[in-house]
Design a protein that fits this description.
By secondary structure, the protein is α/β, with parallel strands linked by helices. 47% of the residues lie in helices and 14% in strands. Helix 5 runs antiparallel to helix 6 and helix 7 (177-186) crosses helix 12.
């Protein structure tokens, strides 16, 4: 009888310990702004204990301690923050080095790198399941899925779209499956999608030769849009001369997280406007 009582007591202690461990909040470090936005969308933003310099959305993220600039990280600072999970965007020399330091501590380093719009709500659900915020994550994911399904593309045929991501030197997007998926859903096609890298440098002559039907420029802003319209029109680009040039919020477009759906809605509207122009 005494052994049975001791056994029950031990089992009870084990259950209590397990419950306490399960209720302990995670300590998350995000190594990219999109990872930060995804964690907030999943309902676990309050559990982020460290992030990188450009993690500025949502506004609450601006008060989180910084551990690096997104390329280089302070491994010692990260370790002092005692993370239970580290989340990056894509593997790099910095993340591989950090993963080696985290492995003996049994701290996982995972990546959130969506390849299509549909992957974004899926990542939010995965994070919610991992972080114990499944209900909030499911709600956020479902809302994004509704908006993705509701995207209204421009009428066919597809329009060629040049995305200008910097001007001097001139860079665009190339083999970027996520952005190319977005364009396809809006009735557009990237003329540089066949390039071997995600962000190739191109020449003005190359753009003029391809003569894209639509031009998207960033950073976002009316002054930028007017200046780029005048510049490209002066160089003879038909899209600029006919008003088929649009500004897009760079953070929404270039951060592969929930706000990419905002960018998709804006781009779909731009391509519908372009198609309606004489």
């Amino acid at each position: 009888m005494r052994q049975r009582i001791l056994g029950l007591a031990a089992a009870a202690c084990l259950c209590i310990g397990t419950a306490r461990a399960a209720s302990t909040p995670p300590r998350i470090i995000t190594l990219a702004p999109n990872a930060t936005e995804l964690v907030y969308a999943a309902g676990a933003g309050a559990d982020i204990v460290g992030t990188v310099l450009r993690s500025d959305y949502p506004p609450a993220a601006r008060t989180v301690p910084r551990v690096g600039d997104g390329i280089q990280f302070s491994e010692e600072l990260i370790l002092t923050l005692r993370p239970t999970l580290v989340i990056g965007w894509q593997p790099s020399d910095g993340t591989r080095s950090l993963a080696q330091r985290l492995a003996p501590l049994d701290v996982p380093l995972i990546y959130v790198d969506p390849k299509s719009l549909d992957d974004i709500p899926g990542l939010i659900r995965d994070l919610g399941a991992r972080l114990g915020t499944r209900s909030a994550a499911d709600q956020a994911a479902h809302a994004l899925e509704r908006r993705i399904r509701a995207l209204q593309p421009a009428p066919p045929p597809p329009q060629t779209v040049f995305i200008e991501i910097s001007t001097d030197p001139l860079y665009t997007l190339g083999r970027d499956p996520l952005i190319n998926d977005l364009l396809a859903r809006c009735g557009g096609v990237n003329p540089y999608a066949g390039r071997a890298i995600a962000a190739p440098q191109v020449s003005v002559e190359s753009v003029l030769h391809l003569n894209p039907q639509v031009l998207l420029v960033s950073p976002y802003g009316r002054d930028t849009l007017d200046a780029q319209r005048a510049w490209w029109a002066q160089h003879g680009l038909t899209a600029a001369r006919t008003g088929r040039i649009y500004a897009i919020d760079a953070d929404q477009l270039h951060r592969p997280g929930p706000r990419l759906v905002d960018a998709a809605e804006a781009i779909c509207a731009d391509l519908r406007d372009s198609r309606a122009r004489p």
